[in-house]
Design goal:
The chain is 36% helix and 24% strand. The protein has helices at residues 18-29, 55-62, 65-71, 108-121, 171-176, 236-239, 246-255, 258-263, 308-329, 338-356, 361-368, 376-384, 395-411, 413-428, and strands spanning 8-14, 34-38, 73-75, 77-81, 88-91, 103-105, 125-128, 130-136, 143-149, 154-164, 179-181, 188-195, 208-213, 216-222, 228-234, 268-269, 274-276, 281-283, 287-288, 291-293, 299-300, 434-436. Strand 1 (8-14), helix 1 (18-29) and strand 2 form a beta-alpha-beta unit. Bound molecules: flavin-adenine dinucleotide.
Length: 439
């Protein structure tokens, strides 16, 4: 199909999740002609409801903080639980930088919708129900993006720059064949929304609760309307033991953790449970001539620190700066986009060290017994708040934390070895699926 003026833009964004809505809003605000194609219609379900404090200044810069406050439940901290220990509650107000003492828990259908409408209000041409099917990069020239709408009508867009924000669909990484399973981390999740779960009292109501169990860990995320998002992130070998429906599998998995089961004993699933397999992956590059990938389109590790939405939006904001500069300079080559790749990788790397070790006995012990010495607790809180890109001096205390971790691992070497072998087994188990209830 020939490219007509109707189908021309400066930047074409694939996908309208938090990453796509952020990058498009900032670019449209800078005056570029931005088009965003989203294959679904918002509001649509998405898992991942827990935000981090450093999301707040970003939401403020986007001009949507008040709206998020209307739909969100204030989240003052994160609570970690393990059999035999008192709950360890980390309050963001105690982080090194006290400027952001809380975050929000949000229903993603509402949150993502709000961000997409904000992008449209800033000038992005948003087209929902349009799926991108092909991108043709033409050396030294514009690119052609082909898409199809729900009536089966083909569209062809000519654009100076492409932003892939397609999330776990990893549109460009698949096309380039550069996506691979994370070599050191492998897990899968089963999850659903419940009504009637026991909530924490008072200001703790909005805290996320994390529980460890033999096959991984669980989350409980309270939402403003009384619902509770509940999920288990499990080693793949455990997921392969499923012989019952997905709903029943989720309930059976919850029953393995008495502390959590107690909070859910009168609760009911509000909709069929879902599951996703092997969700840790990354692409070998995130930028090239005329394109960048933002958020999950490049990589996803694990949701244990609720970092996904923040990292997606943060890469969206940084991506907008870099793309703006590249377009203004008339140089959209991979070289001009290096700063983007460096910064995004720094964020992923900082979280990864902790995520990869979260199910180890040593890290679990350290999280369950917070240490105020050497500002360790404050530094962990700053990490949990996602205060990793600014000037807060968390590096020193985190190095001390890591040293203590290695010493603890050596002292309890039998447990550590057993956990390492389990992780190794999980890495070898392949499980690619998205289950729906009844499968
Ligand atoms: C089990 C689980 C629990 C999680 N929990 C949390 C949590 O508590 N907190 C947190 O911060 N993060 C969490 N996450 C991660 C978080 O949900 C993601 O990191 C975040 O949604 C990434 O945003 P994104 O914009 O990159 O991608 P998405 O939000 O997935 O958006 C991508 C969009 O692109 C669209 N799209 C895809 N392909 C095409 C195409 N070809 N054409 C047009 N449109 C397309 C999709 O429809 C979608 O709307 C969790 C993830 C998992 C798997």
């Amino acid at each position: 199909m020939p490219a007509s003026p109707e189908y021309r833009c400066d930047v074409l964004v694939i996908g309208g999740g938090p990453g796509g809505s952020t990058v498009s809003a900032f670019l449209a605000q800078k005056g570029w002609n931005v088009v965003l194609l989203e294959k679904e219609h918002h509001p649509r379900f998405h898992i991942g409801e827990s935000l981090l404090p450093l999301n707040l200044p970003l939401l403020e810069r986007l001009g949507v903080l008040d709206q998020v406050d209307q739909i969100g439940l204030v989240k003052p901290g994160a609570e970690f639980n393990y059999e035999g220990y008192e709950p360890a509650v980390y309050y963001f107000a105690n982080a090194m930088d006290k400027s952001y003492p809380s975050a929000y828990e949000v229903r993603r259908s509402e949150f993502d919708n709000l961000l997409l409408r904000n992008s449209a209000a800033k000038g992005t041409q948003v087209r929902e129900g349009v799926k991108v099917t092909e991108v043709e990069f033409r050396r030294g020239s514009t690119s052609l993006v082909r898409a199809v709408d729900e009536q089966g009508q083909a569209q062809c867009w000519e654009t100076r720059f492409v932003v892939d924000a397609s999330g776990r669909d990893t549109f460009l990484a698949n096309r380039f064949n550069i996506k691979s399973r994370n070599p050191v981390h492998s897990s899968s999740a089963v999850f659903g929304h419940f009504k009637g779960a026991v909530r924490r009292p008072g200001r703790d109501e909005g805290n996320i609760s994390v529980y460890w169990f033999d096959h991984g860990w669980y989350w409980m995320i309270p939402l403003r309307d009384g619902a509770m998002s509940v999920g288990a992130v499990c080693w793949t070998y455990y997921m392969k033991t499923r012989k019952v429906s997905v709903d029943q599998f989720l309930l059976d998995t919850i029953a393995l953790c008495p502390m959590m089961a107690e909070r859910l004993k009168d609760a009911k699933l509000m909709a069929p449970a879902l599951a996703t397999g092997n969700f840790s992956y990354r692409a070998t590059r995130m930028a090239g001539d005329g394109y960048i990938m933002v958020g999950d389109a490049y990589a996803f590790i694990d949701p244990v620190f609720s970092s996904g939405v923040f990292l997606a939006m943060n890469s969206g904001e940084l991506g907008a700066e870099v793309v703006d500069e590249a377009l203004r300079n008339g140089d959209v080559s991979a070289r001009s986009l290096q700063r983007y790749e460096r910064t995004v990788k720094h964020g992923l790397k900082t979280f990864s060290w902790f995520i990869y070790r979260i199910t180890t006995p040593a890290l679990r012990k350290m999280f369950m017994s917070p240490r105020p010495a050497f500002r360790l607790e404050q530094a962990i809180l700053s990490l949990l708040a996602a205060d990793i890109f600014g000037k807060t001096p968390i590096r020193g205390p985190l190095l001390v934390f890591k040293a203590i971790y290695y010493v603890t691992s050596i002292i309890s070497w039998r447990e550590s070895l057993a956990a390492w072998l389990k992780r190794k087994r999980a890495r070898r188990t392949k499980l690619d699926f998205v289950w729906k209830s009844g499968n």
